[in-house]
Amino acid sequence: MPLNNFLEIRDLHVQYKTEDDTVYAVNGANLSLGRSETLGLVGETGAGKTTSALSILRLLPKNIGFVTGGSIVLNGENLLELPEKQMFGYRGKKVSMIFQDPMTSLNPVIPIGKQISEVLKLHNTSNMTHAEIENRVDEMLELVDIPAFRKKEYPHQFSGGMKQRVVIAISLACEPELLIADEPTSALDVTIQAQVLSLMSDLKEKIGTSMLLITHDLGIVAETCDKVAVMYAGEIVESGFVEDIFSDGMHHPYTEGLFGSLPDLEIEKRRLSPITGLMPNPTKLPAGCKFHPRCPHRKEICSSELPGDVYLGEHMLKCHLAGQGA
Questions:
Q1: How confident is the model over 79-110, as pLDDT tens digits?
Q2: Confidence band of 111 (pLDDT split at 50, 70, 90)
Q3: For residue 100, which phi and psi values (nearest 5 degrees)?
Q4: For the segment 259-274, what is each residue's pLDDT rounded down to a tens digit?
Q5: Mind spelling out the 3-state secondary structure of the chain?
């Protein structure tokens, strides 16, 4: 299995436990991300994408969410083994997260400039003075195309797109090594989604940050990512470089289904081919391949044996058919 010296998630298992049931949210997921790379994590709602991201930051709901196996190694350190005090220093400093909804990510009664400065004060490892922190706030706002004089204004005085830019400024203020973006444009108007994505890509290049981009939009992945990982029922069923996933070569049936659900403007009168059925109940996952109840190519082995990872160079497929060369 190819290894990388920056972010390595190996055999990650995450469960949510209640009095009535156990939700098997992530089931042996493997992810690899290099420095300054962007990895797109795609899949349906409930696939385990956000849970995987929260596991990196160790922000799973207390007393409910548990990492039950695996490792998350960032630059040689297993984050799951760090003391909470040390992990607290990682959040915002080395790893930052842009959450899905900018409307709920900002404190409505605190000016945006103060919200940016709070992050800088919390991780003030270089002993910045008050004046230097204020200059850094101005710099970050200008970087995301917001005039610095607006730093004394409150979130309600900004549009949705500008709120998301403020959230990006907060996330990048300490120049983190890893930026996790959880569907950062899904709550925004279509007209400004491209602007926000372009801004994130530009800032990533300037700062040299690696980015894990969680999305269900394959168009966004094609335009912004270096690598792709396709997630289904808590497992990575296919991964590789963007060229591998968007080529006409071999694919996991689930990935084929995702592409079949997209309209193609170049082909007239092409009917969409949505994936039949629904995601499996995460409290009662099927045996064998988790996708087999919905798979049009399923064989008898698919319902009884879990497929292994099949590598075609850097391109990985978790499918019995790939193992048979089909």
A1: 999 999 999 889 988 999 988 777 788 999 99
A2: very high
A3: -65, -40
A4: 887 766 566 566 677 7
A5: CCCCCCEEEEEEEEEEECCCCEEEEEEEEEEEECCCCEEEEECCCCCCHHHHHHHHHCCCCCCCEEEEEEEEEECCEEHHHCCHHHHHHHECCCEEEECCCHHHHCCCCCCHHHHHHHHHHHCCCCCCCHHHHHHHHHHHHHHCCCCHHHHHCCHHHCCHHHHHHHHHHHHHCCCCCEEEEECCCCCCCHHHHHHHHHHHHHHHHHHCCEEEEEECCHHHHHHHCCEEEEEECCEEEEEEEHHHHCCCCCCCHHHHHHHHCCCCCCCCCCCCCCCCCCCCCCCCCCCCCCCHHHCCCCCHHHHCCCCCEEEECCEEEECHHHHCCC
Structure tokens, 154: 């409150």
